[in-house]
Amino acid sequence: MAGGQEGEEYLFKIVLIGDSAVGKSNLLWRFARNEFDQNSKATIGVEFQTQVVDIDGKEVKAQIWDTAGQERFRAVTSAYYRGAVGALVVYDISRRTTFDSVKRWLDELTTHCDTTVARMLVGNKCDLENIRDVSVEEGKNLAEEEGLFFMETSALESTNVQTAFEMVIREIFNNIS
Ligand code: GDP
Ligand code: MG
């Protein structure tokens, strides 16, 4: 789902995955609200928002897909992943079980997407330092093992949210140009 020569459009589909309640929807809301008007569309079972980002003077449309809560039932369908060129795999730094699930989500990604999909591991809720359950080091190590980018974010405090999305978008852009 990428393309475009000079003067043409770039459209990248990016999916948000990870256990229920890790903050996926809030990350997307934070990213969308800070930068542009919210433009959300509900589809059957899924929802996405499109954001325009400037990468090296080129206009890139990032179509970011959020689940409608179906991950609770481990029922994220192949339609959700179809055509994705980027993914943010999110866990909650205050809940280890969500970190333990990361490998399963990566397996899902491998099953449904091309191996070139740009992947970023996101440890969300870094504002909850007092009840931290997964260290920064553990996040970094896992990311290194799996060959992912890594960032801790807080959708609540707006820490690194923009950066995380933009890193993925830039990586996709680099992959195709
Ligand atoms: P999703 O199920 O992964 O989409 O998670 P949601 O975005 O619905 O968030 C689940 C819960 O976590 C909600 O109560 C949010 O208010 C809370 N939450 C989301 N992001 C953060 C964050 O960065 N910090 C804190 N402290 N809470 C957060
Ligand atoms: Mg959600």
UniProtKB/TrEMBL annotation:
Its main location: membrane. Coiled coil: none annotated. One of its GO terms (cellular component) is endomembrane system. It is a lipid-anchor. It is found in: Endomembrane system. GO terms for molecular function: GTP binding; GTPase activity. Keywords: GTP-binding, Lipoprotein, Membrane, Nucleotide-binding, Prenylation. It comes from the Eukaryota. Belongs to the small GTPase superfamily. Rab family. This is Uncharacterized protein. It comes from Ficus carica. The chain holds residues 1 to 177 of 213 of the full protein.
